[in-house]
Amino acid sequence: MLQYFVKRLGIALLVVLTVSVISFGLLRLSGDLAQNLAGEGATPAQVDEIRVLYGLDRSMIAQYFDWAGSALKGDLGRSLFSNDPVFELITHRLPVTFTLAVSSLLLAICVALPLGVFAAVYRNSWIDRAALGLAVFGSAVPSFWFALVLIYVFGVQFRLLPISGSTTWAHFIMPTVTLSTMVMPQIMRLTRGGMIDALDADYVKMAWAKGLNPMAVFFKHALRNALLPVVSLAAVSLGFLLGGSVIVESVFSVNGIGSLAYESIKRADFPVVQSILFVLSFVYVVLTLLSDLINARIDPRIRLH
Amino acid sequence: MNYWSRIMSAAGALMLVASPALAGPEDGTLTVALATPVEAVDIYMGPGPEVAMTANAVFNPLVAYDTGSQSYRGVIAESWTRIDDETIEFKLRPDLVFQDGSALDSEDVAYTINFIANPETRFRLKSRYSSLVGAEAVDPLTVRVATRGPFPMLMARMIGIPIYPSDSHSALGADYANWGRAPIGSGPYRVVGFDESTGIVMERWDGYQLGPLPEFKSITFRPLPDRQTQIAEMMAGRLDVIVASSPDQVAALTSMPGFEATIIPDMLVQYMYLDAAGRSGIEFFSDVRVRQAVFHAIDRDAIRNNIISGGTAVGELTRLCLPYQVGCPDGGSPLSYDPDLARSLLAEAGYPDGFDLQVSTWGPSRPIAEAVVGYLRAVGIRASVDALTLGAYRQKQVEGGLQALVSSYPYGGLPDTGVVVDFFFASPDRDYYGDPRLPALTAEANSILDEDRRAALFRETLDLVQDEAFILPISRDPAVILHTDAVSVDASPRGDVLFAQFSLFESFGTTPAILGWAD
Q1: At residue B17, does pLDDT exceed 90?
Q2: Which residues of B are less than 8 Å from A263 in CB distance?
Q3: Domains, chain A, with CATH or none
Q4: What average pLDDT score do residues B8-37 get?
Q5: Which chain A residues contact residue B235 at CB under 8 A?
Q6: Which of A39, A42, A253 sits opposite B229 (nearest CB)?
């Protein structure tokens, strides 16, 4: 297990390093930062002054190593616009995004798991078809459109929920519902598939033959085994939700990492964008690593591959 | 309690949480949407329309510009005298104070100017102030501002320089970027709350000395980046004012009772230029007939009336400069919409079958570029839109990659034609015209103080631009204020309003703020 852990950790660190190098390079290639900072009306001499002032006259490699060296010490630089420490900007916003992502994942699990189980148990029934319809709806509907529909119905027409902001729990209801529809279909379908496989397995048939009550068969024998891939998916989904809430946060004016990323991309605040990518990729890799380790713990065969 | 009672109770509880006290004249609070969150009420640290809107409510400059008389008038300054070609001396109004009660004197003015002129101070668009050498307090009410050589646009530049209290600002040391979270100014409003999530709360400062007291007891600026969400919040009664960004947004709200749109002339100008110099590798625009053909193909009136938000209320833009800018020559007649003439000019120039063309654009000009491309395709030019980010556009411009550009510029809100010619012709990056007369005329106009000579040079420059079809002034792009009928917007011509969105809460002299409560 230790050897497996070290191997996976090494791969995870390589992924983070690769993401940081690629994102650094792509951001620098997407436009001249000094031109951006100097503004449209600046002369070449003024742009050059800005380039020197912000250290952008050095080679890209030197800039990367500077940034990476500081990042390892917890210093992610400062925003080019607000001059705030990027670390503070991110840690200030991360709890909001984390709350949104976790609540969305919990909601998705609470809806998708029972629905997946029922769809598998009552295969080809109306429940199964309704679950399939919900999954297709969740996968097909753009999140911004669904968000606007929710806003119109619950915020404008009935005025039951606040439309924007993130100051009270009520502010999180519509963003949570919107975001959860992005992961609900996968969890539901994976649960259904896993349950169908489990229900057809010999050990479940044996459980039925032993005369166990249906609840014990479904939940103790079938669901327990069907949940293995769902655990992995849930961990990866959390990473996806943390990074994928940009549009939802923007529509609902939720002051999280997503809206920070959106604003920073719009105005090419490279240190902030770079650091958000770094932090999110780090979180994503850690979650993936955790899910790998959990799976390896549950299923020893994985460790042998 | 039965099932339905519980449901209704829960819904009621939600409504209590969901519905904060609605804004409006009852409690004197105005709620305004910010399309871009304001990280600091500090125009130096974060130049942008939203920051300018909030900062101009809190701070005052030395002078303002009167568009009616086309002259400057004092705000913090009472009078001014040119000492020599590189120095202006300002006399300040006596007994002015900041919102914390500290005196506003020449030390504060000198400190602010020296802060922005300091080469070590880091902030965006610093190049705007590169002509300033610094300032010196002569006595408590006298300050001298020095420039790098004769700088005819100094007065224009001064209208965009808010004055900070030296003691409070300098106390922040290297953390000067935090100033805008709890700023102290001399304007009609003071910041009493600053939170990135909920926005900025300002209260009327009853000690305001430089103009009429505003009508709003307090203002809440709420960050709402999504335009649809802004509309929804306004429909739900939680927002009073939006600065509209598209005709769709205006149509969506004004079709409902209780909402109005008021158009205010602004300084934003939409324009198009072509690569006459051949920097991008294309040759056809070196022929003036081809440039004329392109401009004849574009129906500027239709673009203004259908695409530009509030365009129906602004007249035709005949020059690149605006009539009230110092030195802007009268007259001007851009090439009219005549697609038949465009086709014949193309044929005459040897391009009866047109050519491939990439029309670059960025930001809010994209819908206009798309319309332009449609008009060009109608006369046989196989045009396509090349939509870029600001950084990518600037890089492409510097590298000489633009074949044609549709863009906009607000001239920094400065009332001087020198800004216009400087923007288009001073920098080699932007020289897609290949005519050495343009940078030469610009350099002369912006290095002399003789206003008559400057005006003559501006006329010569802009006539040349028109005759050679280098740049097409497409339209002015006004500000459209979407508001509830509880709010009044004074759209009448005003003495001090240059960039309306910036000036919504300013009040100088006897002129009240643009926004107030409806009677």
Answers
A1: no
A2: 36-37, 225
A3: 2-72 (no CATH), 86-298 (1.10.3720.10)
A4: 65
A5: 156
A6: A253
> What digits encode the pLDDT tens for the residues A167-209?
899 999 999 999 999 999 999 999 999 889 988 888 888 888 8
Residue B382 CA to residue B373 CA, distance in Å, equals: 8
B261 strand-pairing partners = B482
- Asked if the C-beta of A167 comes within 8 angstroms of chain B's C-beta atoms, the answer is yes
**Under 8 Å between Cβ of B470 and B312:** no
What is the identity of the amino acid at B377?
Answer: R
pLDDT in tens, B157-176: 999 899 999 999 999 988 88
Which of B39-48, B124-133, B184-193 holds the top average pLDDT? Answer: B184-193
Average pLDDT over all residues of chain A: 86
Q: What is the pLDDT of residue B1?
A: 45
Interchain pair A163, B222: CB under 8 A: no
Question: Could you give the CA distance from residue A282 to residue A298 in angstroms, rounded to a whole number?
Answer: 24
Contact B454, B329 (CB under 8 A): no
Chain B contact present for A253, CB below 8 A: yes
Question: Side chain identity at B358, as an amino acid letter?
Answer: Q
Q: Cα separation of A122 and A128, whole Å?
A: 6
- pLDDT tens digits, one per residue of A219-261: 888 887 788 788 888 888 888 888 778 889 989 989 899 888 8
Q: If DSSP states are collapsed to H, E and C, what string results for B335-354?
A: CCCCHHHHHHHHHHCCCCCC
Residue spans of alpha helices (H) in B360-491: 366-378, 390-398, 417-421, 437-445, 451-467
Element housing B307 (H / E) = none
Whether B16 has a pLDDT exceeding 50, the answer reads: no
Instruction: Tell me the three state secondary structure of residue B232.
Output: helix
Asked if the C-beta of A219 comes within 8 angstroms of chain B's C-beta atoms, the answer is no
Distances (CA, A) of A297 to A227, A291, A304: 14, 10, 12
Do residues B232 and B253 lie in contact, with contact meaning Cβ atoms separated by under 8 Å?
A: no
Q: Which tokens is B35 given?
A: 């399309």
* Bridging pattern class, strands B404-409 and B356-362: parallel
Cβ distance A38 to B228 less than 8 Å, yes or no, reads: no
User: Dihedrals φ, ψ of A136, to 5°?
Assistant: -65, -40
Q: What is the pTM of this model?
A: 0.84
State how far the Cα of A38 lies from the Cα of A32, in Å rounded to an integer: 10
A225 beta partners: none
The predicted-structure confidence for A24-60, as pLDDT tens digits, reads as follows 888 877 777 787 777 776 777 778 887 887 888 888 8
Q: How confident is the model at residue B493 (pLDDT cuts 50, 70, 90)?
A: low
Residue B358: strand pairing partners:
B384
Judge whether B262 and B473 are in contact, CB under 8 Å: no
Q: Are B458 and B442 in contact (CB under 8 A)?
A: no
B309-312, Cβ contacts within 8 angstroms, sequence gap of 24 or more: B309/B244, B309/B245, B309/B246, B309/B247, B309/B249, B309/B250, B309/B477, B309/B478, B309/B480, B310/B244, B310/B250, B310/B261, B310/B263, B310/B477, B310/B478, B310/B479, B310/B480, B311/B475, B311/B477, B311/B478
Q: What's the full length of chain B, in residues?
A: 519
- Residue B88 phi/psi, 5° resolution? -120, 135
Are the C-beta atoms of residues A93 and A275 closer than 8 Å to each other? no
Tell if the CB–CB gap between A268 and B389 is shorter than 8 Å. Answer: yes
Report the alpha-carbon distance of residue B496 to residue B65 in Å, rounded.
Answer: 5
Q: What pLDDT shows up at residue B498?
A: 57
Instruction: Evaluate if residue B14 carries a pLDDT over 50.
Output: no
Contact A260, A275 (CB under 8 A): no
Considering CB atoms only, which of A40, A155, A252 is closest to B236? A155
